[in-house]
Amino acid sequence: MRKETIITAIVFLAVGFLAGYITDAQLNWNAQKRAASAPHVHEEASEGAAMPGAGGAGMGQGLPQGHPPIDTGAVVKTLEEQIAQNPKDPEPRLKLANYLYDQQQWQKAIEWYQKVLELDPKNVSARTDLGTAYFNLGRPQDAMREYRKSLEADPNHQPTIFNSIVVQLDGTHDLAGAQQAWERLNKMNPSYPGLDNMKKRLDAARASGASSQAGR
After folding, report:
1. Structurally, how many domains does the chain consist of?
2. Which side of the chain, N or C, has fewer Cβ within a 10 Å radius?
3. What is the residue range of 118's domain?
4. For 123-161, how does the pLDDT look when each residue is reduced to its tens digit (9 = 90+)?
5. What's the predicted TM-score (pTM) here?
6. Within a domain: 180
7. CATH code: domain of residue 56
8. What's the CA gap between 195 and 186, in Å, rounded?
């Protein structure tokens, strides 16, 4: 083999390794950022609330010092290549869905969560995030449908129950359903992050409803 060919091969291997490293670094940074932000829309990392418009990680963060920032397209392309190489593995699909979710590209995230569930229909975290993505698009009924499916698979999945409180309070305006979900989660885990605040919001919503009825 000629020297130039060897050098070229080494360069391509190095570029491939760097692309993979950058993608992993970006995804890891997003996960850390989600975990540090509570409450947060993304169920898997923070077990937080479904809240429209929240979240979204900056691009080019979490990279080695001095490294130029990368754009979403580069990360998406790398993950799509991983998916093409492993068409029966749901994990690369989930990474891409989560990444798009973090970029607040809700519709694209929904499409990839659905593709994850085609391969892994009992993935409760993916289904809950799918529901929350629907909520972020102003589709609370679709969100609740996915939450119900999640709880059918795992009745004790606390992030799903918490998100259902938020969606029923802010989306479907079902105070009775939100209260029932709150009581269910409070019985399981009274110290769940954000649960006390949800109680205050539920009490305020009921008080406001009572005042409106009295004023008629």
Report:
1. 1
2. C
3. 22-62+70-214
4. 999 999 999 999 999 999 999 999 999 999 999 999 999
5. 0.71
6. yes
7. 1.25.40.10
8. 7
